[in-house]
Amino acid sequence: AEKELPQGTPCTQLLVFVATPDCDGFPSLDSKENYKLSVSEGSLLLSADSVWGALRGLETFSQLVGRDENGTYYINKTEIVDFPRFPHRGLLLDTSRHYLPLRAILETLDVMAYNKFNVFHWHIVDDPSFPYQSLTFPELSKQGAFNAMTHVYTASDVQTVIEYARLRGIRVIAEFDTPGHTLSWGPGAPGLLTPCYLGRDPSGTYGPINPILNSTYQFLSSLFQEVSTVFPDFFLHLGGDEVDFTCWKSNPKIRAFMKEMGFGEDYKKLESFYIQRLLNIVSSLGKGYIVWQEVFDNGVKMKPDTIIHVWKENSTPYMEEMANVTKAGYPALLSAPWYLNRISYGQDWMVAYKVEPLKFEGVPEQKDRVIGGEACMWGEYVDVTNLAPRLWPRAGAVAERLWSNATVRDLQDAYVRLADFRCKLLGRGVQAQPLYVGYCENEFGGV
Amino acid sequence: SRRAVGRAMGLAALLLGLFFVPAVLVSTSLRHGAPRTEPEPEGAEWEPASGGLPKDLLWPLPQWLRTSRRQLQLAPGRFQLVHGPGSSAGPACALLQDAFRRYYEYVFGQSGRRKRGRRPLGARAEPELSQLQVVIESREPGCHSYPHLGSSEAYHLTVTEPVAILKADEVWGALRGLETFSQLVHEDDYGSFLINESEIDDFPRFAHRGILLDTSRHYLPLKSILTNLDAMAFNKFNVLHWHIVDDQSFPYQSIYFPQLSDKGAYSYNHIYTPTDVHLVIEYARLRGIRVIPEFDTPGHTQSWGKGQKDLLTPCYSGEQPTGSFGPVNPILNTTYDFMTKFFKEISSVFPDAYIHLGGDEVNFDCWKSNPEVKEFMKKQGFGIDYAKLESYYIQKILDIVSSYNKRYMVWQEVFDNKAQLKPDTVVQVWMENNYAHELSSVTGAGFTAILAAPWYLDYISYGQDWKKYYSVEPLNFPGSEKQKKLLIGGEACLWGEFVDATNLTPRLWPRASAVGERLWSSRNVTNLQDAYTRLTNHRCRML
């Protein structure tokens, strides 16, 4: 016998109530993203403390609306009380290894919003290219971009990204990674990088930023003055990872400096010397900062609210690092198990999903210092031709791990929901790849 | 330190004049490339390959080529691709007409629409190349026929002022030559179209160079199949191995048995109608690509059972049927009645001489559980050797297909399990473990083989895995010269468990290009640095 579905009360309005709007402000680490959604006969109500919560609630609402076989839109009677488990839920894109056209970044922001990600970590420059068009130092991109006319982000592009993100409740945290990962800075800023030596002569190649020159710190001061103004978020990511000491060691002036300063042969001390001066510059500009874990590992003196970004999977097991960082009193961000650029055969989303960010030995205060994590899509093998399928829906696994309750871990259930969500993404025009065999009503590009 | 040879004509370069780069001298001494005299750009990974050699534009690398520094200029408004004098093909050859238009677009892109320019004819720096004349030499050019295993894909291309000439036995060679010609045209800093004077003599090392697509694990919309055929043509692939149905879904809309897709496809929309199938076949033909369908049995057939009752073996638990089904039921006459009719249709729908009949991964558990099957085994005297039952089934299918004058390809299990195969059977070696040994066995037994085992491109991993595909040497197996000749080629396989239209193109290309060169170019084209340079150029061109 056929089930008789009661004729639903047609719903005509979703009422959105926001306690403290701040429509023109920027989202921050402290933003409240909680919301309540109430769907019953004749009443659709979304209430939130802030507009950011309202955005989250709207996304959830859009996911609840379905269509039956007759094509009628419907929504079930529902009560939802929701808020994120972690306040910092980010995605890293790398626009140096490969340039990403503006539309690719904007589309990514859209899909981030579908997944309730709220931080866009823009790893904007690195060794291979410098696409950031600086007002203060236009030569940086003129000499350092892959193509200075086409493979750059103009000031207008950057503002577009920041505003597009803001309208989706997403913070934009720019990373200008130093002193390593800076080869592309060299051509546009002569004298900035350390000249490497072969014996007594310069070899012609360059290494990390030269930490012993005053001009270096003048440059950094000016550059970060600009960056601090351009990017409204309180935090800047200052990098500090993978500094190769070989070039510094080869340079006689640097060796002389090391002696002068009494650093001996410990180049970590030179690295710390540099980082500390950089952190001071950035602090004095009224910004907070995030650094990669090496800065912590190498004993650099940092302000207590410096956020440490844990990314290494091997040397120290990352959970141990999380314990150490939080024990030392610093807030921590987890990325180590979420390097989505590391592809492999099969359903690797499950590995990302199973991660438990708080699974380390520590007191509750420590656990509280874990503010969230980031899925990273490094760009060595990624550009606009494969960004979307490689990111989605895999990053969705990280998104749920960071938003939902720690007890939400059932893989079977997650599979069903994520596969369905993936079909929804296709319906929204996102080139999200399949999780496993199957189909969606609307396949990408037709049918 | 490296000598820098700039673009400016130094004295040495003037004297050099003709730049000789043979990849292989046909049937004579083998020399791998001339020493490079241009420095590798610093940070080769990141800088666009500019100021390179003409050969740096080519993929796959031709068997023999000679280029000079002398450049000719092409005017988009005047340049033409035409049938040359003495060609056995002319304006009635739709295949070539279509190719001329297509390659004109590839060469000139948007600029093709530029009308006559205002720069006076005499003011050019370089002499003009006004035409590419295509001359088909065989009396049967092949314009209206289908490519086959024995087709000639050889071509000879001469690019000199004022007219370039592309000679080929058959149209298939002309298609390959047009692709190469289009790769030689490049733009200078001023946007002028240039081509270096050159001479190329080319033919494929292996005759079967295929891509396997799986449209059962995920449906692939027509558009993505057609885009893929274009990409295949850019890489001189000439076989589309269409693994069209399998356990998960049956998208092939059969004329005799419409319920197969009615009940077995993912949905009513996830099907290939007869028109779709014809479109794929013709689109492929125009690019010199054979379409070999695979209807894999007796395993991999779950989706067949939805629309064809009693085709699959009912599995048992003790005395009771469990409700689930196994491979095709080999003991019923109805099975063979069905297959006879079904393969009659397939034989007429797909024009290629070959059909792939599958035969891989047959799980015997269900057969073993079925009392009637057990009874049959006894009667036939097979004992408990179910491989014999499998072979019994396969043999009957092979005979059915033979009766329609089709030849067949099978996966290696069919050979391994000792079915009796006709001598012109092609065995596809796919199991990675010790595949060289399998190649020896197959060719040692006198069968033709194709290699897929090291080229399962669905097995993704982090990093530049194209290098490992490129480094495979198909003939590295113990065997006589006669045996080696039986390895007729290979296939890059993109199984569909994790692949559909959202990620097919980036996952297949340019990784499959590495396989494409391995199957086309000479055996000693193995230098990874050089391949990297050419492949990155080729990739940008494909974009």
From TrEMBL, chain A:
One Gene Ontology term from the biological process aspect of the record: carbohydrate metabolic process
Entry annotation: catalytic residues: 242 (proton donor)
One Pfam family here: Glycohydro_20b2
GO molecular function: beta-N-acetylhexosaminidase activity
UniProt-listed Enzyme Commission number(s): 3.2.1.52
Residue stretches making up the Glycoside hydrolase family 20 catalytic domain: 86-405
CDD domains: GH20_HexA_HexB-like
Protein name (database record): Beta-hexosaminidase subunit alpha
Upper taxonomic lineage: Eukaryota, Metazoa, Chordata, Craniata, Vertebrata
UniProtKB/TrEMBL annotation, chain B:
Pfam families: Glyco_hydro_20, Glycohydro_20b2
Catalytic-site annotation from UniProt: 361 (proton donor)
Protein transport listed as a keyword: no
EC number(s) recorded for this UniProt protein: 3.2.1.52
Compartments, record wording: Cytoplasmic vesicle, Secretory vesicle, Cortical granule; Lysosome
Domain Glycoside hydrolase family 20 catalytic: 206-522
GO MF terms, alphabetically ordered: beta-N-acetylhexosaminidase activity
Reactions listed under catalytic activity: N-acetyl-beta-D-6-sulfogalactosaminyl-(1->4)-alpha-L-iduronyl-(1->3)-N-acetyl-D-6-sulfogalactosamine + H2O = alpha-L-iduronyl-(1->3)-N-acetyl-D-6-sulfogalactosamine + N-acetyl-D-6-sulfogalactosamine; a ganglioside GM2 (d18:1(4E)) + H2O = a ganglioside GM3 (d18:1(4E)) + N-acetyl-beta-D-galactosamine; Hydrolysis of terminal non-reducing N-acetyl-D-hexosamine residues in N-acetyl-beta-D-hexosaminides; a ganglioside GM2 + H2O = a ganglioside GM3 + N-acetyl-beta-D-galactosamine
Enzyme type, top EC level: hydrolase
Keyword Transmembrane among UniProt keywords: no
Keyword field: Cytoplasmic vesicle, Disulfide bond, Glycoprotein, Glycosidase, Hydrolase, Lipid metabolism, Lysosome, Signal
One GO term describing the cellular component: cortical granule
Protein name: Beta-hexosaminidase subunit beta
Source species of the chain: Steatornis caripensis
